[in-house]
Amino acid sequence: MFNRDRWREILEVLTSNVGRTLLTSFGVSWGIFILIVLLAAGKGLENGIRKDFGDIATNTMFMWTRSTTKAFEGLPKGRSFEFKISDVQAIWDNVPNLRFVSPRNQLGGFRGGGNVVRGIRTGAYNIYGDYPEIINQDPMTVTSGRFINVNDINEKRKVAIIGQGVKNDLYEKGEDPLGTYIKIQGVNFMVIGTYKKNSNDGDGEEAQKEIFVPFTSFSQAFNRGEEVGWMAITAKDESSISILKEDIVNLMRKRHKVHPEDNRAIGYFDLYEQYNRVESLFGALKAVAYIVGIMVLLSGIIGVSNIMLIVVKERTKEIGIRRALGEQPWSIKKQILMESIFLTVISGMVGIIFGSLVIYGINSLLDSVGPVDMFLSPSVSVGVVGGAMFILTISGLLAGFIPANSAIRVRPIEALRTE
Amino acid sequence: MIEIKDLHKSYKMGSNSLHVLKGINFKADAGELVAIMGSSGSGKSTLLNILGMLDGADSGEYTLDGVPIKDLSETKAAQYRNKFLGFVFQSFNLINYKSALENVALPLYYQGVPRRERQEKALHYLEKVGLKEWATHLPSELSGGQKQRVAIARAMAAEPKVLLADEPTGALDSTTSYEVMDLIQKINDEGNTILVVTHEEDIAHMCKRIVHLKDGVIVEDKKVKQVRADQYV
Question: Which residues of chain A lie closer than 8 angstroms to B160, CB-CB?
């Protein structure tokens, strides 16, 4: 294979008609270029969407109560019930492999009534009663002050962390909210921190307009007693919440005397399932990129195959001479195959290089214009490039196969007669 | 050296079958210089192609240097051609993007001779045909006579048992033809067996034996007094 004479001959043949060789190789370069750029674009989209998911613990479910739809143990259907704070401990005790179980209470909703007052300004925000762990499940950046801590919970302090949006509504520009008081449904809370959320999805505006207060003080201030509005439950990384959620929901049914087959009494949202759905979308994107890229590449390969056939035709006489001089058929076959593979791989490399340059260009453009929605640092991995090289070698082999066979099918005497 | 018995060959032309060789019996000993003559269509080229294992016979026996040549695979035929035979063609059939030296070295390459040795040997044969200074030239830079001499050097390079020349002077003027025949005679003088297909009387008489072919059969096989070509050069 690493035979000097053979390689010299390959170069001689391919450079004997430079224009034709370049045009042919362009087909292959173009195909692999498309493949690389499509894969990089898919990766960019993936990166962008992954960033939107942010640091949210994706192995998480949210669970809330609704009214029962089946009568059970003497209780009527249509009965409302609430989770209790003791349910949290029950979940910890009965379901293994959980990382966080955060009970939550909530006031308000999206663009709800004016429930927060500061001086003459009012606003409508979501107010959450939370435990400190929630920051791991619903990540946010504390931009000033601090988040809720255990002491706040234990001492039922009336403190609040407000979002950037809340601050903009209730405070003058440049005013420091720390240490000031806001009135939430008539109860004063001291602002001890501000946060910002990194979210690009639809509720981005709403996400900045939330107020977090300690769970215990929330319950006391707004008369929730032992009630829990909803829970955010995160599983450990090695187990899936989608599997654990059955156990959790069943446990809750049992504790609240809900019919075991009452599927609508307890509502939940499985983030992990959603996340997996997006993951499979990425998979589909990648498959589409590969299919389109390989299809384009295929037309390039057919071009190479065509040209190799023409080359063989042109060299029929030469092949005849070689065989008269005693060259073995397999040697001729090998020669044609190597020419084809060489041409394909070199053109493919050119395509890869140009693809990489374009990706580099896009990246520096993205860097200079700032972040773009749902698109971040398109790239291809070394593995993909290696895979592309593998595809190229195989396709070069395939492209050379028919011409190589036609080269040795001609009998030397017929080849010699060709003028 | 060469022995053929009752050789038949026909070509299919559509529905018709053209019987080209109709039972050839022929024998050539080592060191002979044989001219095969005949008008076009007499089957002389077909005979040479069969002798050169470029084409297969329909029936008959062919023995070359004691080896029966029969039912050869392409691979085996290539091996035998390389080992036993050297070819000289009317249209020279040099590979036009290779230099004279590379052309001569080609059969040695197929024998697997190492590069350095190959080039030395090729240069030696080029020197023998008087074209050492032209070793690096491409065929397009050579005259017809020079091309044929390169082709002869190439045929000799592999040191074959038999040299087969198909109209070696067919594309050359008479002076150049005599130069080429002079070379062929000298190679024969060294003891090589040579078969020359020609339709030119003067060229035929520069051989030691003339075989006349007509309509696929040998009509005449006579020894002649060799006319030396060097007297015309």
Answer: none
Residues A20 and A31 occupy one common structural domain: yes
Task: Looking at the complex, report in whole angstroms how far the Cα of residue A26 sits from the nearest Cα belonging to chain B.
Answer: 25
DSSP state letters, A138-206: S--EEEEE----HHHHHHT--EEEEEHHHHHHHS-TT---TT-EEEETTEEEEEEEEEE----STTHHH
Q: Which helix (H) or strand (E) holds A212?
A: strand A210-214
The tens place of each residue's pLDDT in chain A, 419 residues long, gives 457 778 888 888 888 888 888 988 998 899 889 888 888 888 888 888 777 766 666 788 889 888 888 888 888 888 888 898 899 899 999 888 888 899 988 887 655 556 888 888 888 888 899 999 888 888 788 888 999 999 999 999 999 999 988 888 889 888 899 999 999 988 999 999 999 886 655 556 777 888 999 999 999 988 888 888 889 898 888 888 888 888 898 898 888 888 888 888 888 888 888 888 888 888 888 898 889 888 888 888 888 899 899 988 888 888 888 888 888 888 889 989 999 999 999 999 999 999 999 988 988 888 888 777 777 788 888 888 888 888 888 988 988 999 999 888 888 877 777 65
pTM score, whole prediction? 0.71
Query: From the candidates B53, B89, B93, which should be mutated to test the interface with A, based on the most A CB atoms within 10 A?
Result: B93
Token duo for residue A285: 């994107």
Q: Domains in chain A: how many in total?
A: 3
Q: Do B106 and A322 touch (CB under 8 A)?
A: yes
- Cβ separation of B110 and A327 shorter than 8 Å? yes
**Cβ distance of A325 and B89 shorter than 8 Å:** no
Structural domain span for residue A299? 4-54+277-417
Nearest to A16 among B74, B82, B97 (CB): B97
The interface pTM score, or ipTM, of the predicted complex is 0.87
Do A122 and A26 have their domain in common? Answer: no
Quick one: A34 and A87 in the same domain? no
Chain B residue with minimum CA distance to A330: B75
Six-digit token string for A112: 């709800």
Q: In terms of domains, do A184 and A287 share one?
A: no
Identify the burial level of A402 via C-beta atoms within 10 angstroms of its C-beta, where 0-12 means exposed, 13-18 middle and 19 or more buried: middle
- In chain B, the domains with their CATH numbers are 2-94+159-231 (3.40.50.300)
Touching check for A20 and chain B: CB below 8 Å?
no
Establish if B165 touches chain A: CB-CB under 8 angstroms.
no
Chain A: residue whose CA lies nearest to B49:
A413
